[in-house]
Amino acid sequence: TQVITVESLEKHDQANNDDDNDDDVRAEEADSSGDSDDSSGDMGDNDGDIDDDVSLADTPVVVKGHEPDSGDGSDEDENGDEQVQDAELYFEEHRSGRSRGATSDKTLKALDIAHMQASEVTTLAQQQNNAHAEQRQQLLDTYRDRYSLWASELDHGFNLLFYGLGSKKRVMMDFAQQAQGTLPQLVVNGYFPSLHVKQVLKSLSEDLLGFASTFRNVVEHAEFVREAFEKQGASLILIVHNIDGATLRSDLAQTALSVLAATRGLRLIASIDHINAPLLWDHDKTSRFNFLCHDCTTFSPYCIETSYGGQILGRSDTVSVSGACRVLKSLTQNHRKAFWALAANQHQEQSSGSDFRGLPLHEYLIMAQEGFYASSEDRLRHFIKEFVDHKLVVWRTHEGAECVLVNASDSLLQSLLDMLEEHFPGDQPL
Length: 430
Prior knowledge:
This protein has 430 residues and is of the alpha/beta class. The protein contains 18 helices and 10 strands. The strands form 3 sheets. A 5-stranded parallel sheet has the order 4-5-6-3-7. A 3-stranded antiparallel sheet has the order 8-10-9. Helix 11 (251-261) links the parallel strand 5 (236-241) and strand 6. Helix 15 packs antiparallel against helix 18. 25% of the residues are buried.
């Protein structure tokens, strides 16, 4: 790139306009320019270029090969102004913490959807049950031919696990009745929403073995049942429909069931329906279960298994054990203590046969202050609001006083307390 300065332009103008210069001077200048070195030759080239760019004499500095900007920069100014306006508009919209558009207040509750009644669900399920009856009966007849094989596997110390599409309840009950009908049986419906493994252990220890005691956790209870069972030499068939049920998926529940499965004299027949059910068992649990798996596809509808699904029927007013467990896991320890104290008080009142209408707020506050999980009424009301939002409790008014009530039956309350004891043993209130 070559640079032309103002000084070079002035010399050029003076050389062209001075008519008084003699010929000798001009010849001497011409000789000197002809004998110059490479740099002088370059300068000579610059002289030639100056002739073409004389009209640019008013420009202080010109770079060859670049045209001077003939514009006045108005385009850049306009672009800059637009960017500034966009930035100001952005901050103006977000200054109040929300966008300019109003948030819609439409929710799913506003939809006019009629929830199905229990009778309607039962009728539809029975209609579906009649589809392909002949083909499904052929499957059941095929499984009956395998009863002797399954019974032999139980006699050799294995436990049976059935999987496949369709309800397996009918096949399992028919097999237990025909092939193992002489032994006592305990049937566990794992799909029941309020079931707890503690109820299974209590039935074994109190109803079958005749022992009533308290234990720190369900695993310790299962170990006691195992020792007492083997000591007495008892025999039993334990049938668990949906051992992967929502209320039996905890690690403690599966550990307790695996301890029972390893008990000498106890034969376990179980079924699964969830595709990820085997992920519930680690190496130790799998070893204790000692399952032999069989495909038991029946294509039968899950009429009984789904009859307890409150969400299908639109019944969401009462709390479920699994739902309460998920909610309480997301809350603080003081929240769990407050709910535990309320549920325990209500269970005690209902068990005594009294007409419990709810725990008055002032009594609840005294319990909270004594338990050190809520020191003020505002704090306690905040807890109650969280419970109400998650439909764990409801507000009631009794004799002009505000009362709080867990919307659950006495049996469901017992299941809730068992769940709290299993999952949150360190949060029990004083």
